[in-house]
Design goal:
By secondary structure, this protein is of the alpha+beta class. It contains seven helices and nine strands; from the N terminus they run βββββαααβαβαβαβα. It starts with 22 loop residues before the first strand and ends in a 21-residue tail after the last helix.
Length: 239
């Protein structure tokens, strides 16, 4: 991780023109990018910093675009606190030691909530037979496998998805979800969910974006055997 520069990082003072995607700057690396590439940190009235992964908390925020390992290292060395003090132009900032863990937990919960919302909106299906039929007919835009799904089942459905075109991003295999079928089932409010297919393109974009942010923060090699396909999906507007 690069050392932050000594100039004061910008916070949310920009007002992008209509039709232009908001740009943010990571307070640690000074890298610039689209708002959806970063994670917002908010400071409460008590001065305590907390993750605001939905970017909805009131007040001013600062943005980070690093992995959990990089965030934890910067926090342990005091670099994160110094960057936040510059960003907010105050020394009255308290950074919890477990901010990295809190941020990861918030990103995880956001992804699970997103899946639950899409399930309630009937934008996804589960069950190997249903998923395979939809995949072969080109109706699947994002394919997910539980972290403990069997290899044979994953390969069979991946093949069916390739036959159907791999969705809007023409992917060659489904993504291994970084949690077990138990957690996936709880998120969807259904029983024994092992494979999930997003059948609505907008819903697929929303779920893919939530998962991409979570995995980018936690780092590579998630799920059994690691190496799940990288999701580089554009921003997805919430509903």
């Amino acid at each position: 991780m690069r050392n932050p520069r000594n100039d004061a990082p910008s916070v949310e003072t920009d007002s992008p023109a209509k039709g232009h995607e908001p740009e943010r700057t990571c307070i640690l690396t000074r890298r610039k990018g689209a708002k959806d590439e970063f994670i917002r940190l908010a400071v409460g009235q008590d001065g305590i910093v907390a993750p605001d992964v939905r970017a909805r908390a009131p007040g001013r925020g600062a943005w980070i675009g690093v992995s959990r390992g990089e965030l934890d290292a910067a926090n342990a060395k005091g670099k994160l606190k110094a960057a936040l003090q510059r960003a907010f132009k105050t020394n009255a900032v308290t950074v919890p030691d477990d901010l990295g863990a809190r941020t990861e937990a918030a990103l995880r919960q956001y992804a699970l909530d997103r899946l639950g919302m899409e399930a309630r909106a009937s934008n996804l299906i589960n069950g190997a037979e249903k998923v395979e039929t939809a995949a072969r007919s080109g109706k699947v835009h994002l394919l997910l496998h539980a972290g403990d799904a069997g290899e044979d089942g994953r390969r069979s459905l991946d093949q069916a998805w390739r036959v159907g075109g791999g969705g809007q991003w023409e992917m060659t295999q489904g993504m291994i979800f970084p949690e077990s079928r138990t957690i996936l089932s709880m998120a969807l409010g259904r029983e024994n969910v092992v494979h999930v297919a997003l059948t609505d393109p907008a819903a697929a974009s929303r779920v893919a974006h939530a998962l991409a942010r979570w995995l980018a923060f936690t780092g590579p090699n998630r799920g059994p055997e690691g190496g799940e396909p990288a999701l580089r999906i554009g921003s997805a507007e919430e509903v």
